[in-house]
Amino acid sequence: MSDLGRIPHKRKTGRELFHDGDHGLDFNLLDFWRWSVSDLVSNVTRGVLAEYLIANAVGAAGCIRDEWAAYDLDDPRGISIEVKSAAYIQSWGQEKLSTIVFNCPKTFAWDPETNRQSSEKRRQAKVYVFALLACQDQTMLDPLDVSQWDFYVVPTVLLDRRTRSQHSITLKSLRKLHGEPVAYAGLRDAIGRAAEVV
After folding, report:
1. Read out DSSP for 108-119?
2. What's this model's pTM, rounded to 2 decimal places?
């Protein structure tokens, strides 16, 4: 039986062709990406996009996203980051804007090397970044415009000290905990400061 350890990943270019054995087909990986993740407003894709924005802000976008890691990002300064995303406007038809609530429960970490969960349920990252796609006008909505995002950077220790829900946080509670949102250009510094809070 072959080794069934963790599969190493290589960063793709998008030019990789699909093929039928040795015969190349006329579509490539970029075509798949366009087909599968062009709806940047959908909940899942928007969440991954938020991670990518923050990865770029801290200089961590040169690697490959690890979908099964215990937390979302490793800042080059050694800061573990969890990213949570929300938006007022969704891809589907709405009667009103969405109420903003971020889920942030304690979890069991899973180790992809050993395929085992940790025994302790906790928040795995040092810092949480709550990314809100804050535009409330569907005709203007552009998830690629970082000025349309509000970022709330919170030390995990502050989330753990909350006496209210430990599973989620409303925007109102987040503002009480954090204050005004951070602009994209200020994310790296804000994350660094949050990591120093004990």
Report:
1. EEEETTTTEEEE
2. 0.92
Nearest 5 degrees, angle CA 61-CA 86-CA 101? Answer: 135
Q: What is the pLDDT of residues 31-63, one digit of tens each?
A: 999 999 999 999 999 999 999 999 999 999 999
The backbone torsions φ and ψ at residue 170, rounded to the nearest 5 degrees and listed phi first, read -80, 165
Question: Per the structure block, which two tokens stand in for 152?
Answer: 């709330």
Residues 107, 66 contacting (CB under 8 angstroms): no
For 45, 66, 112, the CA distances from 8, given in Å and listed in that order, are 23, 11, 11
Q: How far is CA 99 from the centre of its chain?
A: 19
Dihedral-angle region of residue 92 (phi above 0 means left; psi in -120 to 50 means alpha; beta otherwise)? beta
Cα angle at 165 between 152 and 183, to 5 degrees? 5
User: What residues does 6 pair with on adjacent strands?
Assistant: none
For residue 136, the Cα-to-chain-centroid distance in whole angstroms is 21
Identify the bridge partners of residue 17 per DSSP, sorted by sequence position.
28
Q: How far apart are CA 188 and CA 196, in angstroms?
A: 13
